[in-house]
Q: What sequence folds into this?
């Protein structure tokens, strides 16, 4: 099974919302659609799901254009897409029936999911009586009621407290274990880093970078060094050619212009009998890559 | 089709369970039963009084002729014949202040004063509260009756024979033969049905729009449109709310018929006319329901589009304004043409054929025999074609609008959106 997104392009009036976006998912796992608000993530999702027609390009599942008949998909919208004044179990059954399930099958699936997400006790309550986290679980149950092959999660962690975020994280990990195809859209880059093997980084409708996250990071190399020690190591670092990037409460973070500077610094510490409690070479974060790429683009735009 | 039925079932179930719906239905049904009990209550209060409203007596009139210029007994007989709804009492000039107070307190009181004029002949003054009061509009009839008695007395005093007097006061016989028979019951029920159909169409149309606006603002729409086609949601929702409306409408009609049969006395008369419901035949009931369904369908799809164009429920009333204006104008046009009866036949025909007014005015026309089978067929055909066209247009605009958030999408832009 595979998902292919080819050259998706969409304009709203004069505004180009999505510009020639392509990517592929050939294995189960989590694919990240990353970008700031207004980057075009939701529009891409809508075009993939076939609820918005692209001006150009197509989304294929196993080589066929995606439709409700070709692919069973589940969609978790960015904002809670549930009836707040209706009972939880009742609306889950409704969503299941809309997906073509029989009433009995929808009820069984809904009850199983409520149990799995540990919210069975809320089955007969109206959704507005639930916390945000539990509402998100209900929404996720509505997304998964028909056991879809492809699951699209639009900003799933948005507005969740750490406890509920952790709970949702466990659920998503469970879906990964079940070999589901998941597309996760988010503007919280550090969140996506924990899940996505492959991703596309979006800015104003076009791709800044796309591909395997590991390879993208490796292509940047090690750019930062985190050090903590009982002694002040800043003078040694500066003389080794490292630049202080940020002072954290428990460590210093340096920008690494080249690997040899780090080695010189380590050697200096050793010569002065300083044992660092932390000496960690850090890869660039997704956030840094994003900022770097946006900066490159703005620079190119300015040059023009 | 399965999706439409699913949306239909869920919409119906959720709307039928709403407290507002249950309370409204209960209040309407109780109101109808109470209304049907009014005649019995009136009969109970009158306790055999021949001058009761039930027996057609609505007004009281004092006759003041202190100089006895016109013989009272003769005047009384004439006036009772001319004004059967009025109870005549002998009054006197000394109590005029009290009569005036009574008139100001109660519009059903009036006074006829007969006094000698400057030329020596009697002059009649009719005192009523205002020009809307009954005796004011009947002043001519009252004066005519008093004049006849006075002329007869004067001629008799001059020795004219009773035969000649009778001949001098006779009028030619005439017969009013209306081609169309608009009964009081048909007219009243027709006007009530115009109002009822309008409110039902308006209420349930608003329900559709509001339900869609809520789904859109709560983003449930995003979950729905990935599950089924937007057109299925639109149709299912309209069907669900429509069926609920039909059930309520049916319940109202059923309770009204039961109330009329069981609670209103068979010999009950109102303003001298017996109140029979023979005009409300099963055929008329069936056609009324059919036109209610068509009218609801037309307005519901238009309201659904209004609901789909807003991102916030608060904006719904503004979005619904154009449809609201169309429905209000249609209602008032229907109401006016029905009230005027056959006096404005051309306008009535227009109301029968215009798809926006036909659902309101047709029940009235059916009850009062003002729509021929041809009228019925043409009206239903125009309405059906209009519903098909509006639905096709609405589905397109709805599909383009349901996932559009932020600034309200103009209908023209929504129509042009690539789907």
A:
């Amino acid at each position: 099974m595979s998902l292919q997104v080819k050259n998706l392009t969409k304009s709203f009036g004069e505004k180009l919302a999505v510009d020639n976006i392509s990517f592929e998912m050939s294995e189960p796992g989590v694919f990240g659609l990353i970008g700031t608000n207004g980057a075009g993530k939701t529009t891409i999702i809508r075009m993939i799901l076939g609820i918005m027609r692209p001006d150009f390009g197509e989304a294929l599942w196993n080589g066929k254009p995606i439709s409700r008949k070709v692919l069973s998909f589940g969609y978790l919208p960015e904002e809670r897409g549930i009836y707040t004044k209706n009972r939880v179990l009742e609306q889950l059954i409704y969503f299941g029936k809309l997906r073509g399930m029989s009433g009995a099958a929808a009820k069984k699936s809904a009850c199983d999911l409520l149990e799995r997400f540990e919210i069975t006790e809320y089955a007969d309550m109206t959704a507005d009586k639930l916390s945000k986290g539990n509402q998100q679980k209900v929404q996720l149950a509505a997304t998964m009621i028909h056991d879809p092959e492809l699951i699209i999660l639009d900003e799933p962690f948005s507005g969740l407290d750490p406890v509920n975020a952790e709970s949702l994280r466990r659920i998503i990990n469970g879906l990964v274990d079940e070999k589901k195809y998941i597309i996760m859209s988010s503007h919280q880059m550090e969140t996506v880093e924990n899940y996505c093997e492959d991703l596309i980084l979006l800015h104003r409708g076009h791709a800044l970078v796309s591909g395997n996250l590991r390879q993208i990071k490796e292509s940047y190399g090690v750019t930062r060094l985190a050090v903590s020690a009982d002694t002040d190591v800043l003078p040694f670092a500066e003389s080794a050619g490292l630049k202080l990037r940020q002072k954290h409460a428990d460590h210093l973070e340096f920008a690494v212009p080249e690997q040899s500077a780090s080695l010189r610094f380590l050697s200096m510490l050793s010569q002065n009998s300083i044992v660092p409690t932390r000496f960690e070479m850090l890869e660039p974060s997704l956030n840094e890559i994003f900022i770097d790429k946006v900066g490159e683009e703005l620079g190119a735009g300015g040059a023009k | 089709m399965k999706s439409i039925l699913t949306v239909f079932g869920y919409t119906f179930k959720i709307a039928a369970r709403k407290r507002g719906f249950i309370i409204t239905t209960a209040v309407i049904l109780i109101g109808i039963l109470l209304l049907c009990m009014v005649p019995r209550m009136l009969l109970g209060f009158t306790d055999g009084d021949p001058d009761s409203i039930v027996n057609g007596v609505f007004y009281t009139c004092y006759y003041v002729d202190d100089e006895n210029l016109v013989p009272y007994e003769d005047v009384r007989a004439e006036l009772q014949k001319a004004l059967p709804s009025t109870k005549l009492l002998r009054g006197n000039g000394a109590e005029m202040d009290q009569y005036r107070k009574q008139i100001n307190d109660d519009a059903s009181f009036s006074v006829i004063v007969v006094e000698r004029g400057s030329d020596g002949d009697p002059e009649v003054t009719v005192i009523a509260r205002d020009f809307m009061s009954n005796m004011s509009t009947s002043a001519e009839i009252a004066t005519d009756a008093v004049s006849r008695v006075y002329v007869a007395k004067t001629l008799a005093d001059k020795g004219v024979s009773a035969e000649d007097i009778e001949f001098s006061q006779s009028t030619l016989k005439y017969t009013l033969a209306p081609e169309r028979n608009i009964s009081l019951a048909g007219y009243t029920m027709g006007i009530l049905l115009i109002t009822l159909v309008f409110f039902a169409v308006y209420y349930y149309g608003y329900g559709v729009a509001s339900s869609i606006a809520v789904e859109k603002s709560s983003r449930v729409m995003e979950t729905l449109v990935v599950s089924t086609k937007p057109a299925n949601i639109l149709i299912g929702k309209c069907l669900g709310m429509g069926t609920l409306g039909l059930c309520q409408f049916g319940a109202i009609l059923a309770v009204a018929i039961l109330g009329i049969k069981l609670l209103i006395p068979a010999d009950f008369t109102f303003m001298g006319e017996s109140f029979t419901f023979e005009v409300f035949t099963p055929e008329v009931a069936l056609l009324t329901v059919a036109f209610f369904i068509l009218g609801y369908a037309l307005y519901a799809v238009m309201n659904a589009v209004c609901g789909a164009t807003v991102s916030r429920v608060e904006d719904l009333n503004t979005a619904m304004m154009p449809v609201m204006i169309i429905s209000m104008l249609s209602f008032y046009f229907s109401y006016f043409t029905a009230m005027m009866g056959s006096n404005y036949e051309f306008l009535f025909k227009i109301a029968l054929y215009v798809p926006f007014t036909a659902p309101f005015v047709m029940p009235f026309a059916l009850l009062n025999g003002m729509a021929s089978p041809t009228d019925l067929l043409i009206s239903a055909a125009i309405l059906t074609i209009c519903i098909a066209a509006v639905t096709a247009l609405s589905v397109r605009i709805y599909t383009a609008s349901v996932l559009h958030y932020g600034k309200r999408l103009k209908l023209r832009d929504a129509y042009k959106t690539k789907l």
Q: What stands out?
A: Chain A touches chain B at residues 46, 49, 51-53, 55, 68, 73, 75, 77-84, 86, 94-95, 97-100, 139, 142-143 (CB under 8 Å).
